[in-house]
Amino acid sequence: MQKQASQISLQPRAVSMQNGATRQITGEMTRVFWSLVTVAAVGFLLGLKFRVPALLAASVATAIAAGFLLEGPLLPRILFPLLMLQCAYLAGLVAGGMWRHTDSPRR
User: For the residues 80-99, what does the mean pLDDT come to?
Assistant: First the structure.
């Protein structure tokens, strides 16, 4: 039987993992999600306007901030935001190049 919209619970629930352990879906997962979204937005905007030196400074700032703000093992805690920053930067770089290319007059 389907739950109606008024019956859906927004309380954290236990989720069974493949190894049998359970984990609460809490604010930590929400914090990780929004940190990745924020890092992606910053990376995209950097790619639109700035070049490599700005990306290097943003990478250092992202690694330091992720190390202090997020919980979990050190490598994924720093690696995932950095990968998101780099990929979003490349997407912004491509989008900025296409935008500048379409703005230039054709001869």
Answer: 91
